[in-house]
Design goal:
The chain has 494 residues and is α+β, with helices and mostly antiparallel strands. 24% of the residues lie in helices and 16% in strands. The longest helix has 15 residues. The two termini are 21 Å apart. The N terminus is likely disordered.
Length: 494
């Protein structure tokens, strides 16, 4: 685990330019030239590392008893769970991931199997004693075309299962490609995924409701980067709502809006998730829906109602108690809140500075808002622990955390996934925070972007923008090639 000293932050805050000693990460002299201001992505939660642990390093304020809890939460986040009912057990019976870290390697985005295996990997490595193959690190959401869930399946298709239990289905992806041309003649390619679900649990005759493909909407999500989660939860909600009130730029077709959702009986502003469909970091939901781990908020098994729940003598051993307690879940919540945000890099390079100018020239900043603030008291964890260290900070997430229509016309489909989340329609997505995005390849070994990883690089991600992103996409497309490359260099500096 990489850490940084408070001296680094103090120096960066005190001077316009501070040379930080980060030689252990192999940085060049130019890369360690870290000015104050926007380079400090998250104020005192900024960390100064470009290693594969850039997303997985605690902020400097994590000390003493808080550090011990952070380490426990980190361990629970990373440790593989098994079907055992002992410590570390509770996996399944069906699941999508065997640990938080299995999908969020190094608190980032584990490389999905959509490209390497075109879906659920049929020949993958066995999952830590579960006896099962084919781990995918993706979430597959399924609904009827009227928005209702399929009986006994819920909102997520669980493509993994423990020994003796059938997975709910397997994902298969077919890619369609189309080549386009910028006005200057340079070409680029976009790839569109077509999803099919095979080997439905219903096909085994264990439920009375077979799935009709004509009634199915399927959307796939690759993991989000867990960067800046604490700062996001500490954001001044009034500032986000004020952005929604004034986020209307008719000359560019932009009009962002808030998502409001009801959780634990309280209607709140949504901030987290691809569609801002959650008001917290969903630790309890992650344990339940992603790993099949019962807890105080979600005490029922996720495959409750499936006949295989009542079949087999070993089933009674699996469903007799809650499998993770609230204290442990709050430690995981603390871990997520306390992760640092990498400082910007190469900020004084000519091409990066030019790229930042192009970022504004293309009006990207109208949605990817550069600067927000956290509320004075910081954030509160799921069991009531307060984190005042997150309060009163100026942060640079490059997001307004609002919903925007991203269009439906590109390759005939665009980014509309037909999945409704709270107030968010299928064509609406929360503006993705860009802090740390330039280190994704270093942390996770790939540059797949957008909700389902269809974009293989920054250029493709930009060119998938439609709807409210259409104007920025067109401004980017009309730039000279050198300016487009400079804008990409800027994104790599974040």
């Amino acid at each position: 685990m990489k850490t940084t000293s408070l001296l680094h932050v103090a120096l960066a805050l005190a001077a316009a330019t501070s040379v930080l000693s980060c030689q252990e990460d192999g940085l060049t002299v130019e890369e360690i030239d870290v000015p104050a201001g926007y380079s400090l992505s998250a104020g005192t939660s900024t960390v100064f590392t470009t290693s594969s642990y850039a997303f997985d390093s605690e902020a400097d304020w994590v000390t003493g008893a808080l550090k011990r809890r952070f380490v426990r939460g980190d361990k629970l986040y990373d440790d593989a769970r098994t079907s055992s009912t002992e410590y570390g057990g509770g996996l399944g019976p069906v699941y999508a991931g065997y640990s938080c870290g299995s999908c969020h390697r190094n608190a980032g985005r584990t490389k999905p199997a959509l490209w390497t295996q075109t879906g659920t990997d049929p020949d993958g490595t066995p999952v830590y004693g579960s006896g099962q193959y084919g781990f995918s690190s993706m979430l597959v959401y399924v609904t009827r075309k009227n928005g209702a869930f399929f009986q006994n399946y819920g909102r997520v298709l669980h493509d993994q299962s423990i020994f003796g239990v059938e997975a709910e289905g397997k994902l298969e992806c077919r890619w369609h490609y189309q080549t386009f041309q910028f006005p200057d003649g340079e070409t680029y390619e976009l790839a569109y995924p077509e999803y099919t679900i095979k080997e439905w649990y219903a096909n085994y005759g264990n439920t009375s409701e077979p799935i009709n493909p004509d009634e199915l909407f399927c959307t796939v999500r690759i993991p989000l980067r867990h960067v800046g989660m604490g700062q996001m939860m500490a954001i001044d909600r009034n500032e986000v709502e004020a952005l929604a009130a004034k986020s209307n730029y008719p000359e560019y077709g932009i009009s962002g809006r808030c998502n409001y959702i009801t959780e634990r009986g309280i209607r709140q502003l949504g901030l987290s998730g691809n569609k801002a469909q959650h008001a917290d970091l969903t630790v309890e939901l992650g344990f339940s829906s992603d790993m099949g781990v019962t807890n105080s908020r979600y005490p029922e098994e996720i495959c409750e109602g499936q006949r295989q729940m009542q079949e087999g003598s070993m089933m009674g051993l699996l469903y007799d108690k809650l499998e993770v307690n609230t204290e442990d879940m709050e430690n995981v919540d603390l871990y997520l809140h306390a992760l640092g945000v990498p400082a910007r890099r190469n900020v004084n390079k000519k091409s990066v500075k030019r790229g930042e100018e192009m970022f504004y020239e293309a009006k990207c900043h109208l949605c990817h808002v550069t600067t927000l603030h956290t509320r004075p008291r910081g954030a509160t964890l799921l069991n009531g622990t307060e984190l005042p260290w997150l309060g009163g900070q100026t942060i640079h997430p490059y997001s307004d955390f609002l919903l925007h229509d991203m269009g439906s016309e590109i390759m005939g489909v665009g980014l509309n996934d037909n999945y409704v989340s709270g107030l968010a329609r299928g064509n609406e997505w929360r503006t993705t925070p860009l802090w740390g995005v330039g280190l994704q390849e270093k942390v996770n070994g790939h540059t797949y972007f957008l909700h389902d990883g269809r974009a293989r690089n920054f250029t493709e991600a930009i060119m998938w923008h439609g709807g409210e992103g259409e104007a920025s996409k067109n401004l980017f497309a009309r730039m000279p090639s050198a300016d487009r490359k400079a804008l990409i260099n800027f994104l790599n500096s974040l």
